[in-house]
Amino acid sequence: MSGHEVVFGFGTHAGIHEVPELLSMAQQADRDGLDIFSLSDHPYLGGRVDAYAALGFVLGRTQHLAGFANVTNLPTRPPAVLARMVTSLSALSGGRVVLGMGAGGLWDRIADMGVPRLSPADAVDAFEEAITLVKLLSGGGSPVTYQGRHYQVHQIEPAPVAAPPVWTG
Fold it and tell me: In CATH, what number does 9-168 get?
């Protein structure tokens, strides 16, 4: 999805007990020809369904609708694991996933999950490294070694599937 393409869809932050409604809305949106659905990614909120678990569930029960976490809470999702997750979802859904990424905003809650608190400048630096890593760890090729300030990987084989489009927020 390019930056110039107009898409129509819906977004939500479904609670654990709202999964039937989420699935019903997504299936109706799919039948009605909407393009995309998004789920907020706040893994520190126990009452909400995990965004990536829900994406996989909904994409598996729809035919055309694309999905993305709006936006992926990068500090709580290491980029090497995130790369595996989104390339797998892309392969499983026929390319119907978009990667929305954010540097983290609610640092008190993020830190409550055991994630080291970053300054705003460091959060942006980590965000940039994460985008680089996700792209390096997708689309095939030789094993990747990356030594950043925030993230390091050693001889990790990229997924043969290309990274999905990246939306940043």
Answer: 3.20.20.30
